[in-house]
Amino acid sequence: MKIDYKLQDKFDLVIFLSVAILLGIGIVAIYSATYNHPTAKGNFNKQLIFTVVSILLLFLLYFLPARSFRVVALPSYIISIILLVVVLFLGKTVYGAKSWMSIGGVGFQPSEFAKIGLIFFLSHWLTDSKRDINNLKELFYTVSISFFPILLILLEPDMGTAIVYSAISLVMIFWSGINLFGLFVVLSPGIILFASLFGTIPFIVALLLIIVALLLFKQDLFISGSVFVMNLATGFIFEFILKILQPHQVKRILSFVDPTADPLGSGYNALQAKVAMGSGGLFGKGFLEGNQTQLRFIPEQWTDFIYCVIGEEFGFMGSIFLIAIFLILFLRLLNLTSLAGDRFGRITIIGILTLFFTHFSINIGMNLGITPVIGLPLPFVSYGGSSLLTNMFLVGVVLNIYKNRKHHV
Amino acid sequence: MSADYFGSALRRRIIFFIIIGMVAVQTMQLINMQLLESNKYEVKSHDNSIKSFTINAPRGIIFDRNIEILVGNKASFTILLTPSEYDRENSKILETVLGVELGYIDKILKKYKKFSKYKPRTLLSGADYRMISWIEENQQKLSGISYQVDTQRDYSFGIIGSHIFGYTKEIGREALKKKKETYSIGDNVGFIGLEKSYETLLRGEKGKEYFVANSRQKIVKRYNEGENDIPPIKGNDIITTIDYKTQKMAEELFTNIKGSVVAIEPATGEILAYVSAPQYDLSSFADVTSNLVWDSLRFDEGKPLFNRGTISMYPPGSTYKMIIAIAALEEGVISTSKKVNCNGGFYFGNRFFKCTHYHGKVDMKEAIEQSCNTYFYKLILKVGLQNFHKYSTMFGFGERTGIDISPESKGNVPSKEYYDRVYGKGKWTDGYLLNIGIGQGELVTTPIQLVQYTSLMANWGETKIPHFVKGYIDSNTNEFVSLKYDSVKINVSNNTLKIIRDAMLDVVNSKDGTARNIRMKEISISGKTGTAQNPHGEDHSIFIAFAPFDNPKIAVAAIVENVGYGSTYAAPIAQKIIKAYLGSGDKSEIEFTNSNLKEVF
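^ inputs. structure came back:
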C-alpha cells in the first residue's frame, strides 16, 4: 500500500484507522446482538446514526484551532460539574444509577461528557509551570479538581465511571512528575479502601503499614500526621459509601469473589459471558450463529457484554484481533506523547489514553471473568451514543494535537 | 525539577509496561478459555440452550404361545408440566378440566420439587381428547403446560390376565435412587406380575428429542433439524406360554366364583392358562390409578388383588393321597394288592376319623379311585412322618416352585421338627399324622405346587420349572430368543408311577370313580378329586388332572373356594379347560358362558 506521506503528516492514520476498525467491529457485533431482538432491534440503526454523527464530530474537532481546548478547559469543567449536580436532581434512574438526563427528548449521560471537562481542565491545571505538584498544598488542590466530579458520580451512584475518573486523574497526576512521596499520598487512600473491602483486620494492618511507610519517608510531623488522618478518614468514608451503594452494586462486587455461588443471581452475567467466550473456540461459531448470543443468555449484550458476541461468533481469532487493534491504538497514543508539541497536548493525550485503557481493561476483564462486573462500555464497540460521541470527540482532540504538533501554542 | 519531568522516559515506560501487561493477561485468559478449556465451555453452552425431552419407549407386547396378542399398546396423551414456567393461578381451572381433585397440581409440584424445574414432568397420563383440545385452545394462557403422545397398555384383546400380566406403577423414591441411569422421576416401572418379572425386557430404551431453548428456557426450534434425536427403542415383545383359547375358557369359567386354576404342559412346565379369581380390570392401572379404584380393590371381600395361584395356601385334601401311595410303594411298606377294610372310618386312640363313605374292602387302586380315607389313615401310619416329608419335598411341596412371577408362597409340609416346634417335643401324637395322610391339617399347598405335582406324575417324574414366558423377540435384531428353564426330576420308579397313573385314570373313567361325572369319550382324562377343609367357611373344591392319559399334554389344578366337594365343582372346570386346549377349538365350546356353568353345577 502506498502511504500518502503528506496525508500522514497532517492526519494520523494509525489512530484513525484503528478507531475506524473498532467502529466497524462494533457495528457488526451490535447487529448480531440485536437483529431479531424484540425490544432492541432499533439499536443497530441508532448506532449507525451515532457513528456517522460522531465521525463528523471528530472532523469538526480536527479542524479546530490548536488553542481552543485550553480556552474551553475551565468553562467545560464548570459546565461538567453543573451537569453532574443537575443530574442528581433531574436525572432518570437507569440500573440503579441516576445518570441519565434528557434535553429536548434526547437522552444523554452527563458523566460521559464530563470526562472531557475533567481531562481538559486537569491538563490545563497541570501544565501551569508555576505549579509544583510535589508541593502537598498544590497536590491537594489538584486532587480536589478530580474529587468533585468523582464524588458527584459516586452519589448517582456509578462505581464504574467513578473508577475511570479516578484512574484518569491518577495517571495524569503521575505523568505530571509527582515524586514517590506524593504518589504515596495519593495512592494510600486507595490501599486503605481496598484493605477495608476485606474487613476490619486488613484495614488495621493497612493503617499500620502506612504508619511504617510514613516513618520511612521521614517527612515532618505535620505532613505525616495529616496523611495519616486523611487515611483514617478514608476508611470511615468508605463505610459511608458502602451504605449509599445500591444493593445490586454491592452484590456485583461480592459476586466477583465467586461468580458460581449464585449462577442465576448477580454472578449470572459473568458466568454466561464466560461460557459465551469460551465456547467460541478458535474460529467461533460464525456470524449470527452464537447460541449464547442469539438465544439472549446475556441481557443487554450490545452494551457491556459486546465483547463476548465477538468471542462467541468469531472465536479466538476475532477476540485477539480486537485486542490487537486496541493495543495498536494505545501504543500509538503513548507514542504521540513524545511527538506532541507541548505539555498540554501530551498530558491531554495521556488522559485520553487512560480513559480508553481503563474502559478497555475493565470491560474486557469482566467479559473474561478476570475483573468484577462493573458496568463500563467498550470504547467504540459497545452500543451507546453518549460514550461514542465523547470518545470520538477525544479522538478528534488527539488528531488535532497531532496536526498541530509542530506549533508551540 | 527539570522540564524533562513531563513525559519522562521512565514514566512512559511504566505506562507502556502496564498496557503490555494488561494485554498479556487478557491474551493468556483468552488462550485459556477459547483454546485450552473451550470444550468445557462448549458443553456448558450446549447445556444452556439445548433442551432434551425424553420420549418414553412403548413397552413390549405380550403374546400368547401362538403369537396372539394378549396385551398390546395404544396411543395415549400425557399432559406435562414444566414447573419453572407454570403459573399456579391456572391450577383450579386445570384441575377441573382434568377431572382431578383440587390440590392435585400442588401435590405434583411438591413431588418434583427436588428435581430440575426446567424439565417437563408428567402431570397426568391417559388424558382424553377433550382435555387435549382444551389445552390446545388455551395454550397461550397455560404456560408450562404441554402434552405428548405416549403409549399405554391396551387390554382390549379379550384376556383379563390380571394376575399374570400385572401392571406398572410410578417408580418409588428408593427404587429410583438405585437405578438412576435407567429411570427418572415419574417413570412407570413393572410393579407386579410379568410386567415386573420381565421389566428389563419389556421396558425398551427411552428416546430423546433435542430442542433449542432461549435463556428463559422457552423452546425456539428443533435442534439441528432433529438429526441428533434418538428414537426410542420399543421394548422386546414377549412370547408367553399362555394358550389364548384355554386362558379365555379358564377366565370365563371363573367369572363369578372365587378360586384358582393353573394349566400346564407337563413336559415343559409351560403354563397354558392361569387364573386367580376374582380378577380385576388392569385397564384401571394403565394410567394414574385413582384412590377410589385402589380402595375398592383393597377392601373387596373377594380379595381380587390377592394372587391365589401362587400365594394362596390350601390344604390339598385327597389330591395328596398319591404322595402317600407313592411313598408307601417306593419304601415297600405295602403291596398294591393289600386290601384294607373301610367301615366308614377309623378309630385311632379314642378318636374316630371319618371316611366319606362305607367303602368295604379296598386295595390301593380302589382307595385312590374312590378316595377312601380309611385306607390312607392306615397307610400314613405305616409310611411315617419322615417318609411323608421326604416324598412331599421330592414333589416340590413346602418349597417355592420358582415360577416367574412373584411373590410365591412356600406352603407347609409338616415334619418332626415342625411339630416339635409348634406343639413341643413329645406333645404330639401319630394322630396328627392321620390328618395330613388325607391332605388336611397343617399340610398346605399352593395351586402352582399342585399343578407341578400333577405334571410330575403325568410326565413320568420329570418336568420343568413352571413358567409363563417362552422367550422374547429382540427389538434390535428382530430374532426370537428362547429362555431356558431348569428341569425338575423326582426319584420314583416308573412302576410306582404307572400304578398311580392307572388309579388316577380310574378316578375319572371307572364306574366308582369320584370324578366319573367328567368322563369323556374323546379325551382320556386322569385326575383326583379333593376337598380342602376350610375352618372359616364352606370347604374348597379341588381337582387335579392330566390328559390325554397316554401322552399327557396338559396338567390342571383347579380350586374353587367355598363350594364343597371336589368332583362337583372343580372337576368340570378342569375338564372344560382340558377340552379347550386339546379339543378342536370349536368356537361354540369356547363361548361357554357363566350362565351355562351354573347349569353344569
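The longest strand of chain B covers residues 69-81. Confidence is low (pLDDT under 50) at residues 1-7, 585-601 of chain B.
thumbs up if we can close this ticket
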